[in-house]
Amino acid sequence: xxxxxxxxxxxxxxxxxxxxxxxxxxxxxxxxxxxxxxxxxxxxxxxxxxxxxxxxxxxxxxxxxxxxxxxxxxxxxxxxxxxxxxxxxxxxxxxxxxxxxxxxxxxxxxxxxxxxxxxxxxxxxxxxxxxxxxxxxxxxxxxxxxxxxxxxxxxxxxxxxxxxxxxxxxxxxxxxxxxxxxxxxxxxxxxxxxxxxxxxxxxxxxxxxxxxxxxxxxxxxxxxxxxxxxxxxxxxxxxxxxxxxxxxxxxxxxxxxxxxxxxxxxxxxxxxxxxxxxxxxxxxxxxxxxxxxxxxxxxxxxxxxxxxxxxxxxxxxxxxxxxxxxxxxxxxxxxxxxxxxxxxxxxxxxxxxxxxxxxxxxxxxxxxxxxxxxxxxxxxxxxxxxxx
Length: 388
Fold this sequence. Notes:
Mean pLDDT: 76
Shape: elongated
CATH superfamily of the largest domain: P-loop containing nucleotide triphosphate hydrolases
Number of domains: 3
Number of strands: 5
Strand content: 5-15%
Radius of gyration: 37 Å
CATH topology of the largest domain: Rossmann fold
Number of helices: 16
């Protein structure tokens, strides 16, 4: 839709794993080298892991285009299978003829025997055989064990089947289990594909636009590219989604350049993002709670001061009420400061009992105070007169 507007021949940010758009960062180049090594290796397992959308499948498609001619490849992209279903799929991918009449109620041996025969025959003809399993984190433990048994077929020089497992980081955790130790020891090469850094993200955007036919200045300004990296975390699939929607937004508004505001709007449409206003609104209830607690604490100080002064003492109730009002209105930032203010307001010369109450006693009455001792009413001084 926007390709002609920006002088492009095709859409540059499709999420399809098109090998033409593969950006060979240092990590992607090394990942591809590991897969190619697996073809020339002596058999066993090669492990390629990476985050969701990091480009594992795209690297695999690029690898398939570079596979030598004398190499037979079986590619399984839906591994949620039982052991028998997996063996059947492998035979179909290698074009191994299987008696259809025996597929109903078939056992592992019914598929394993023709597969072994195929591997021996192709090895004698000087051919290699590679089994690629994508999304391998979905494999069950018993299916992984069956795959390990497939690598038992070997000659004195090499194993007859090379297995490449491609999956998310959970796959590494699976192979670390004690029950899969035998399989883990047969992994001859492993590599984890990291996300792009900020500089690589900018080059990635330029690379895909160039492959799509752009020869002039790219439409993303510097701030927009930095924002794309922050929102995508350097994951290629997220970059594609964000850039595609940003270009569409610029085209819809008749602009030739994509700025940070357009990127932010695109992110709200394709990702589950929250704007800064929402974050402020989320914090607002907490601020109201803090303010309410401060007012409640100040009111408690005033009530405590009135109680300590005791009824019937001339001139005490009114100053206490004034002190409580003053503390509540002052918005004291701490319990100690509020208590000190109340003690100062309650210390006239005519009220020795109130003046003798320390600020720490008042502070201990506040919620959350460290002192846990129960409050006791301070006794009033004895009335004047002769002692009995």
